[in-house]
UniProtKB/TrEMBL annotation:
Gene3D superfamilies: DnaJ domain
Name of the protein described by the UniProt record: DnaJ homolog subfamily C member 25
Keyword Transmembrane helix listed: yes
Alphabetized InterPro entries for the sequence: DnaJ_domain, DNAJC25-like, J_dom_sf
Amino acid sequence: IQEGWLLLVLPLLLLSGRAGALVKGLYCGSHNCYDVLGVSRKAGKAEIARAYRQLARRHHPDLVRRAGGESLESAQETFLLVATAYEVLKDEETRKDYDYMLDHPEEYYSHYYHYYSRRLAPKVDVRIVIIVTVCAISVFQFFSWWSSYNEAINYLATVPKYRIQAIEIAKQQGLLNKAKEKGKNRRSKEEIREEEENIIKNIIKSKIDIKGGYQKPKVGDILLFKIILAPYHLCAYVVWYCRWIYHFNIKGQKYGEEERLYLIRKYMKMSESQFDSLEDHQKETFLKRKLWIKENYEVYKQEQEEELKKKMANDSRWKRYRRWMKNEGPGRLTFVDD
């Protein structure tokens, strides 16, 4: 009796487990995608595509409307189901997830995760998006730097000190005389003035060394090349740091001028471009005062803070501001009687 009962119940358990694998809202819902297309689980891509084309022609809403017979609503539902089954089975990764769901119906939440992770995943390769974004930022960065550099040159061309020097150099090289040629090449005063201005700006570009935020842009400074050269710079830094430890910490050698300026810049918490923009006499003062020694730098820093406090105390604008803060500032409530 028990054996007969098991033979009767076992097929029901298998059918219930098979039905439990088909989750409503996932893939083909309560329908088996293979049964929808009428193919077996061993069917290849060509067989699946052929079955889809046949069913799509048979249940396409436009064809059903012309031929009659099947209702339009039923044809639309069937056509949508057939299209969904084809989308699931034509992709190898999605088909693999679907087969796993059929074979492991008990992993209910895992099936939901795999299904929606694939549906919500970006269609475009993330690496391509990152590369395009970095390139766009690099192009914008480069042209922005060029704009800042040209603004600096245009400003320097209006400063008498640099303009007079540039005009003298242009006269010595005979560039301004070429701009005033007569005869067939004679031009209007506006064209001559514009050409002379360009000559002056070009001389300023070639003679002056702008550092800091307005320096001449270099291709190696943009983001794209920094990322490409990051491994090289990292290796160079490791080598440099090991040499520093070996020469100055282990062997006890004295610092050279370059190493001393590096330590001073480190104590001042300035970037390389900021430190390079300082005047040469300022760097000489730092070296004379031996600011690469921590104790000397602390004394220098204290002096600078005291000097700044004195300047602010003697500044008339700062005095007016303190007086305003004391009498009429945001911390004081007053009533004005008109």
